[in-house]
Design a protein that fits this description.
single chain, 328 residues, mainly beta, 1 helix, 30 strands, 3% helix
């Protein structure tokens, strides 16, 4: 266990090991980083200029250890750890030399860069990638958290491109969040936001399965699975099939209005088009709802907005609510 902080002032993560007979001569090496992660260590890599992962001979940086591996934070900026990280808003980038390589974690992956973020395939319990003045490009993304909320966050000023399938699976269990400062909760969530030009392009399919047990809310919202795609000045495109499943067993809001969805699916293209080019299946359910006032609830909630056009290959919606006990 424990947390390890690396701030080497210009970082290449090299292939192989630096041990005797190893091939790595970089400031930090694949095998040593894997060992820290596999031992349950949370590793913070903070650099002021850029972070690059060399081409790995075995095709992956693998920090998994039967669910016990640690989390990885990558940041371009300054600070002694993720807790006091001060981002550099300039052009520093985080990148893979070979986009076919993979980054495999039991814990979470968080990456922040002023410039571009360009990774290969990623597997983790949660993923958050933010490029303040650049683009985000990845391979396939797998987010799996069977003991909590599975969250996938992609933020960029430019284009967001996923060159592979996205799969998000989460089991949040019971949520007593009435005193929590957060507003939104979901068993499985995908939020992608492109603030400038470039838009969002998911070149593979999207599969999500999120579950929530009993949720107690206070002017908050909850979903089994939530998809929110927002491109301020360009298109939102999903080229593969979409299958989103979500369920919430029971929702209560003792004091204030509640909002709840089995599945929430929202796509907005401010000055572009929304295009779903494969078949889309959305299936969501809520077992029961109770509270003093019902604001908004649905088995499946779909909201799409486009300045130009909305194109959908095929849409299958199946939503249900078991029982409602709420004053109007």
């Amino acid at each position: 266990g424990g947390r390890f902080v690396l701030d080497p002032g210009g970082l290449v993560i090299g292939n192989g090991s630096s041990a005797a007979g190893g091939t790595c001569t970089a400031g930090w090496c694949e095998v040593e980083l894997e060992d820290l992660l596999k031992g349950g260590g949370d590793v913070d890599i903070i650099d002021s200029t850029g972070i690059i992962f060399e081409d790995f001979a075995d095709g992956a940086l693998d920090g998994r250890n039967n669910g016990n591996g640690g989390s990885l934070f990558l940041g371009i900026g300054a600070g002694s750890s993720q807790a006091d990280f001060d981002p550099d808003l300039s052009s520093g980038a985080i990148s893979f030399a070979d986009a076919s390589n993979a980054l495999l974690l039991d814990g979470s992956l968080t990456a922040y860069a002023g410039g571009n973020i360009s990774l290969g395939n990623v597997s983790a319990s949660s993923v958050a990638l933010a490029a303040n003045s650049g683009t985000v490009t990845t391979g396939a993304l797998t987010v799996n958290n069977t003991q909590g909320m599975a969250e996938l966050l992609l933020d960029a000023s430019g284009k967001i491109t996923v060159n592979g399938d996205i799969a998000v699976t989460g089991n949040a269990g019971d949520l007593d969040v009435a005193a929590d400062e957060r507003v939104s909760f979901a068993g499985a969530s995908l939020r992608a936001t492109s603030y400038d030009e470039g838009g969002i392009e998911l070149k593979g399919g999207l599969t999500m399965n999120g579950t929530v047990g009993a949720a107690s809310l206070n002017s908050q919202n909850v979903a089994g699975s939530s998809v929110q795609l927002y491109a301020a000045n360009d298109n939102v495109v999903i080229r593969g099939a979409v299958n989103v499943q979500g369920s919430v067993a029971a929702v209560t809001a003792p004091l204030n209005p509640l909002q709840a969805w089995g599945v929430q699916f929202r796509a907005t293209a401010g000055f572009g088009s929304v295009r779903l080019l494969g078949d889309t299946v959305l299936q969501g359910s809520i077992g029961s709802i109770s509270g003093p006032e019902l604001d908004l609830a649905a088995g499946v909630d779909v909201d799409m907005y486009s300045y130009r056009a909305i194109g959908i290959q095929g849409l299958d919606i199946d939503g249900s609510i078991g029982s409602i006990s709420a004053a109007s």
